Amino acid sequence: MSSRGPSGEEQKEMEDKVASPEKAEEAKLKARYPHLGQKPGSSDFLRKRLQKGQKYFDYGDYNVAKAKMKNKQLPAAAPDKTEVTGNHIPTPQDLPQRKQSLVASKLAG
Amino acid sequence: MAGAGGGGCLAGGNDFQWCFSQVKGAVDEDVAEADIISAVEFNCSGDLLATGDKGGRVVIFQREQENKGRPHSRGEYNVYSTFQSHEPEFDYLKSLEIEEKINKIRWLPQQNAAHFLLSTNDKTIKLWKISERDRRAEGYNLKDEDGRLRDPFRVTALRVPILKPMDLMVEASPRRIFANAHTYHVNSISVNSDHETYLSADDLRVNLWHLEITDRSFNIVDIKPANMEELTEVITAAEFHPHQCNVFVYSSSKGTIRLCDMRSSALCDRHSKFFEEPEDPSSRSFFSEIISSISDVKFSHSGRYMMTRDYLSVKVWDLNMEGRPVETHQVHEYLRSKLCSLYENDCIFDKFECCWNGSDSAIMTGSYNNFFRMFDRNTRRDVTLEASRENSKPRASLKPRKVCTGGKRKKDEISVDSLDFNKKILHTAWHPTENIVAVAATNNLYIFQDKVN
């Protein structure tokens, strides 16, 4: 059985993994998500972060759809009322209700 | 080691011996989202301790005075006041849900019998007045004791109402509402040393307010690019200098800190000082920028240093040296080889806070598995402690915890893979003068004290 030592490139990779666990983790990530495009510092990435809290109810769309489908039945809401996305036209009744915190904090109990 | 109430070593066996004091909150397995604590802050004297939660509520605890009848209750914090600070809102124009979660609480220095604090959610800052009422007027002329109005024609004699003692009532009332000044999410508020103004910072802007004026706010930093596609960094935290009322700092998602002087110009887009640690380009990875993002910045009480927290470490900076920090303390370096999973479960974006003790000789920050870390700047020693109900006998000493990274796990050590990443300690606070710390563990608030205390 002939044994050869690691090639120059393989050796560097091994050194990298030992010297930099971060790079090893990066390799792991890229292996799991080959199409991972967005770099963390990119503007897309940051802009998504700025948009936290965006809901999908569009009042304009709702009214246009209502006008178009005057006589037809509107697509019914999914039984699970937590997500309002896709082809279903949301109605105000369908939106998940924001629960107000009327209950006192348990820290004060 | 001399120092006002904060000097001394940290690790057990020497000067400090951290002991369990109290725990507040429910023991439920199922934690309601609203009960998750999102802010913890002692007031300037340390007598009051405020917490904010995701449900928009504020609970204030007060320290019991020394009482010969109940000697063990000295130093205990009990509920003083609780109120709903913020409610959930929906911005219909932008289809934006505005969470009621309290992001920050900052106390104002006390100027009279009442206490004032600022609390903020993503969009609105509120000034709350907390005052005590322990007397009630009796003997009105125009109304009965039960409040019913008297017929004025039947009043035949006049009397002067007198003040009678009543059971203590603590009232919280919103005195100012500072709204509509932030397009993006507010991450910081900081009261100025002039006691008249304060700043609020969101992802792209920092605003200056006067505490008396709610309909106007000055924008002092604006990093929004003309074209949003050129956006490269966001503001993550901001704070006023503790003594110099014209100086403040703000940190960024790229791991930099900018110090600004409001005397130099009205719009502080150009910094006076720029703090950044040089990075070794060969060690750069996909995660580098994310883990360098600063989640908290705090000036030392002395005003000479500032501390920043990024994902894996806490750094102390000398304000006179911009090139690199003077101290770097590893919080949980063992996580560096877990970054891939931490990215997948979003934990890599967790925002940990950090705090100084009263004498600036020690610093503290949280970690996972309900662990928190303390670093003694003088002895260079550090310790890992755990906030757990299993170790909650009154005045029980906390045993230092250790995480093992290699193969062989010693007894009492916990391996990295067994850490519970849902048990995060993001918010901690250190009493301004004594060795008492408050640690928020999800929905529970732990209070630990130094035995010697």
Can you characterise this structure?
The complex is a heterodimer of chains A (109) and B (453). Chain A is mainly α. Chain A contains 4 helices and no strands. Chain A has helices at residues 8-19, 21-32, 43-50, 59-68. Chain B has helices at residues 288-292, 339-344, and strands at 18-24, 37-42, 48-53, 57-63, 77-84, 89-91, 96-98, 104-107, 115-120, 125-138, 162-178, 188-191, 197-201, 205-210, 213-222, 235-240, 247-252, 257-261, 273-275, 296-299, 305-309, 313-318, 327-330, 354-356, 362-366, 371-376, 382-386, 402-404, 413-415, 427-430, 436-441, 444-450. In chain B, the strands form 9 sheets. In chain B, strands 1-32-31-30 form a 4-stranded antiparallel sheet, with no helix packed on it. A 4-stranded antiparallel sheet of chain B has the order 2-3-4-5, with no helix packed on it. Chain B has a 4-stranded antiparallel sheet with strand order 8-9-10-11, with no helix packed on it. Residues 1-14 of chain B have low confidence and may be disordered. At the A-B interface, α2 and α3 of A face β5, β7, α1 and α2 of B.
Q: Secondary structure elements and their pairing?
A:
The complex is a heterodimer of chains A (109) and B (453).
Chain A lengths: L7 H12 L1 H12 L10 H8 L8 H10 L41
Helix pairs in contact in A: 1-2
Chain B lengths: L17 E7 L12 E6 L5 E6 L3 E7 L13 E8 L4 E3 L4 E3 L5 E4 L7 E6 L4 E14 L23 E17 L9 E4 L5 E5 L3 E6 L2 E10 L12 E6 L6 E6 L4 E5 L11 E3 L12 H5 L3 E4 L5 E5 L3 E6 L8 E4 L8 H6 L9 E3 L5 E5 L4 E6 L5 E5 L15 E3 L8 E3 L11 E4 L5 E6 L2 E7 L3
Parallel strand pairs in B: 28-29
Antiparallel strand pairs in B: 1-32, 2-3, 3-4, 4-5, 6-7, 8-9, 9-10, 10-11, 12-13, 13-14, 14-15, 16-17, 17-18, 18-19, 20-21, 21-22, 22-23, 24-25, 25-26, 26-27, 30-31, 31-32
